[in-house]
Structures are given as C-alpha cells and as structure tokens.
Amino acid sequence: MRGLVVSAVLGTLFCIITHKLYLTVGLIASLNAAAGLLGFFLVKSWTELLSKLGFSQRPFTRQENTVIQTCVVACYGIAFSGGFGSYLIAMDDMTYKVIGVDCPGNRAEDVKNPDLWWIIGFLFVVSFLGLFSVIPLRKIMIMDYKLTYPSGTATAMLINSFHTNTGAEFAGKQVNCLGKYLSISLCWSCFNWFFSGIGDSCGFDHFPSLGLTLYKNTFYFDFSPTYVGCGLICPHIVNCSLLLGAIISWGFLWPYISQRAGDWYPADLGSTDFKGLYGYKVFIAMSLILGDGLYNLMKIMAITVGEMCNNSTKQNNLPLFKETT
C-alpha cells in the first residue's frame, strides 16, 4: 500500500514535469534514476518516521523500490507518449476555431473533444499495443541475442546500491543536493514571475541580452530553470547542434525568407499559417530530421544485411567431419 501511495504521488509530480518539458522545451530526459532515488527516499523516510512513533513497519526492500520506480516511469511515459502535449490538444473544437473555419482541410467532422473516459480507453489501447510490441523484442534482443538492456541494468544497479549502508548514505546526500537546487529553482521561478514582461515585452522571460535588434529576431535570454536544466542534462553535442541550428535559422535563414514576403508567399498571412513563413520553418526542419533518420535507417539495414550474409557464409563454409567406425 505504501508503495502505491508513493507511486501515485511521484507519478503525479513527474507527469507535471513531463508536460512542462514537452510543452516548452520539446525534449524529455530520462527520469528513471530520479524516480528510483525519490522513491527510496520517501519510503525510507516514511518507515523511519513511523518507527520512531512506535509503529512496527515492514522493511523496505529492493522489490518495493523497483515497483515504485516502474509505476512512476509508466506514469510519465504515458504522459509523454499519450499525446497530451501534441495531437490530443489539437483535436478539440477550440483548435478548430483557432486554425480557422474557412481554412482548407480544417473540417468540422474531424473535431473530437476528448472526454475523460475516451482518454482512458485511448491510453489503455495505446499502452497495450506497446506491450505487445515489446514482448517479442524482449525475446529476440534480450533472451535470444543476450543483449544488455542499458537503462534497465543501470536502474537495477542503482536500486541495489541504495539498499546498502554506503549506498543509503550516498542516496541521502543526493536527495539533499536535489532538495537544495529544487529550492533554488523554486525561489528563482517565483522571483522571475514578479519581473516577467507582459506578453512578448521585455522582462526576465524575454531579456534582450544581445540588444533590441536581435531581440526582434527572438535572440533573447530566458531565465527559466527548465531550459538551464535541460542544457545541463543533455550531452554537449546536442546542445552545440541546437545552438548551431538556432543561429543558422533565426540569425540568417528566417530573416532572409521573411524579406521575400509577397514574392515567395503572400505577405498578409499570420505567423502560424503554413502557407507563409511558418510553413518554411516547419517543413525545412522536418526535412532535415527525416533525411537524417532515413540515412540512419538505411545504414542500419545495410549493416544488418551484411552481418546476416557473413553469418550465412561462415555456416556454409564450416568443415564437415565424418566419424569412422
């Protein structure tokens, strides 16, 4: 029961964090280690507090910690893959009106206002489809080919390390560090809220650190701990690539295309109209992503086919020995 209670609390917290990251940054970091750490800390604190009050408590085991971590990961995984930050919110009547009733392709019969029971059924179907696809992959990749599952292995080692004397002490230090920076982030967000600009005006959320000219091209600093945290957790190659893409697009490409308004596209379109500059932004970015994905897919298929051919050739060239009687 205590594991389910802790799972519900942490699952709610991590769902809020996931939605915040999904709707602002667009990148979802792996929170497995944080889920295991916070689950261990909360239940350990729970048992110690009740023991001091004179209540007998069952010991906190690795299995219970694993259940908590699995439930929390499942909660924020559904929050990410369930479409709450993308297609679910694009199906309702409000989005239909925002796009424009007269917009070609925007039809009233395609509107769906998701209610609670519809969303529950939808998530149930989505989750079980994922389960049916994971089971065959588990049999092939982990059981047959004996491949190491890196995320699961790392989580198991982390949970096992918590349930030792040294690991428990180290986990306490990690939680103290987590609480310290969480408090700093919370206080800074509250301070930032008081000095944020109205709309798109200057403020701590739109700080013109490079001047007003570049500010008009959206080159400003956002003092949001969310973006800073994502930059800290992402590898440097990701951060450098994002920075390069931002400089090329917002510094050169979009200003150049915007000067061709009236020639390449109608000049009287809105900022989110796919027939205008926004269409160039979306489809150029999607083309780059899909092109790189297609290259990696072709590369993986070529390597896989080559390995299969090599294994088949080696099996055909095996020497045969006949037993003599």
Automatic annotation (TrEMBL):
Compartment(s) where it occurs, according to its Swiss-Prot or TrEMBL record: Membrane
Ranges that cross the membrane: 25-46, 67-90, 116-137, 237-257, 277-298
GO terms of molecular function: oligopeptide transmembrane transporter activity
Pfam families associated with the record: OPT (PF03169)
Membrane topology designation: Multi-pass membrane protein
Record's GO cellular component terms: vacuolar membrane
Keywords carried by this UniProt record: Membrane, Transmembrane, Transmembrane helix, Transport
The keyword Transmembrane helix appears for this protein: yes
InterPro entries: OPT (IPR004813), YSL-like (IPR045035)
Family to which the UniProt record says this protein belongs: Belongs to the YSL (TC 2.A.67.2) family.
NCBIfam families, per the entry: OPT_sfam (TIGR00728)
Protein name per UniProt: Metal-nicotianamine transporter like
Phylogenetic classification of the source organism: Eukaryota, Viridiplantae, Streptophyta, Embryophyta, Tracheophyta
